[in-house]
Write a structure and sequence with these properties.
By secondary structure, this protein is mainly alpha-helical. It has 13 helices and 13 strands. The protein has two domains: 169 residues, no CATH class; 178 residues, Glycosyltransferase (Alpha/alpha barrel). It starts with a helix and ends with a helix.
């Protein structure tokens, strides 16, 4: 067996073990507040956050994280069903419970919010740290809605199919808000009005919702994915820099969030019709290669780079861009067989497990710089609930197992 062929089964087994470890760690922890997932741990010290940690502490529940966690629980429950029935059952028990909690939040006014206080009231934090009530969202939708909607559709598919149409409408409302200018990225400002009017034309919202396409297909809902090609076409037309292959955060701007570019390519490749479009696959692979090569240094990917100069604009190298690279590179390599995508897959794999993965417990450092792990929160202080890392590695497992099977079959001829 060649080294290349040996990598696929080894990686698949290692990824499955890592995901199982994270999920067991999360399931073993006491629930947060009214029954929410609790990943409130400092990734450097491994100490639980307490009340003295303010916005990081247990008095605050992040709808953003809970929505991600719901999708992760449900998706992994299905994956482990035939591999570890006991773990799958635990994931389903937790999934049903979290489904009920998020349903209650969303039923209040048709939204899920970024942050809730101890009384589960939506709140935001001003620049000086003052916590105030968040404005009702009304007809404005946010990233928290996006993550919650995806999680609710996945959970309803598995636990309550009769409730699924309502959550598909919720997801459709988020998609519509992106396309007609009612999506607000910044949830630390009052929702609507001045903040909404000042939002940049970032491709982030389309990228995140594009991640719903593959999920919908696996739920048997391919007829609800027409929006995905519109989103892909929009991002490539308006954000792709043809010279470098990088995606500009906003049209005409100079900053590129390389992790978002790689994540966009991965979500697009996870959408079944894209895989039959060789020209589009080539474009997406180019985005992967350009983004990784422009930003990777030593142990991870710098958060942002300059499209014009190639300068690395941020010292921070968050954990999440590496598993997202693993996903995207795996999907690329499966379709193209290119040496470049395989090399990036293996480089990202080594960087993540050598420099970020703690192993015991099965969590990653949130962020590193050239000087090592650092206390920088990429988005929310709660650690990843099996979403960025878990779902990315899960996609790579599917690819690695398929490639292992195909190589084995070929070798036996």
């Amino acid at each position: 067996m060649t080294a290349e062929n040996a990598f696929f089964p080894e990686a698949a087994d290692r990824y499955a073990s890592a995901n199982a470890g994270t999920l067991r760690w999360m399931l073993d922890r006491p629930l947060l507040g009214a029954g929410f997932l609790n990943t409130k741990v400092n990734s450097l010290t491994l100490a639980d956050y307490g009340a003295a940690d303010g916005l990081r502490g247990p008095d605050y529940t992040y709808g953003w994280i809970q929505g991600r966690g719901l999708e992760a629980l449900v998706t992994h429950a299905a994956f482990f069903e035939t591999r570890d029935a006991a773990l799958s059952q635990r994931l389903d028990d937790a999934g049903r419970s979290l489904f009920a909690r998020i349903k209650e939040l969303q039923a209040r006014d048709g939204h899920v919010y970024f942050r809730y206080d101890a009384g589960l009231r939506p709140v935001r934090a001003d620049g000086d740290g003052t916590v105030t009530a968040q404005e009702p969202a009304g007809d404005v939708f946010t990233y928290s809605d996006a993550f919650a909607a995806k999680g609710l559709v996945a959970a309803a598919t598995r636990y309550a199919p009769e409730e699924r149409p309502g959550y598909l409408r919720y997801l459709a409302d988020v998609i519509a808000a992106i396309e007609d200018g009612r999506f607000q990225m910044s949830e630390e400002k009052p929702l609507g009005g001045e903040a909404l009017a000042g939002e940049p034309d970032d491709f982030g919202p389309r990228m995140i919702l594009l991640g719903g396409a593959g999920m919908l297909e696996r739920c048997g809902l391919s007829d609800h994915t027409a929006y995905a090609q519109r989103f892909i076409d929009h991002v490539i037309k308006n954000h792709l820099d043809e010279k470098t292959g990088l995606l500009r955060n906003v049209p005409g701007g100079d900053e590129c969030n390389v992790g978002h570019g790689i994540e966009f390519a991965g979500f697009a490749l996870d959408h079944a019709p894209v895989r039959r479009n060789a020209a589009l696959v080539a474009t997406l692979e180019r985005i992967l290669i350009a983004s990784f090569r422009a930003s990777f240094a030593e142990c991870g990917l710098h958060l942002t780079v300059s499209v014009s100069s190639g300068e690395k604009l941020s010292p921070y190298r968050p954990w999440w861009s590496l598993p997202e690279t693993i996903r995207t590179a795996a999907l690329c390599h499966q379709l193209t067989g290119s040496a470049d995508s395989l090399a990036i897959w293996q480089e990202a794999d080594s960087a993540f497990f050598d420099h970020y993965w703690r192993g015991a417990p099965a969590i990653a450092y949130q962020t590193r710089t050239a000087d090592g792990p650092t206390d920088y929160v990429p988005a929310t202080p709660d650690l990843d609930p099996g979403y960025h890392t878990g779902l990315s590695l899960l996609a790579a497992i599917r690819v690695a197992e398929a490639l292992s099977t195909s190589h084995t079959a070929y070798a036996s001829r």
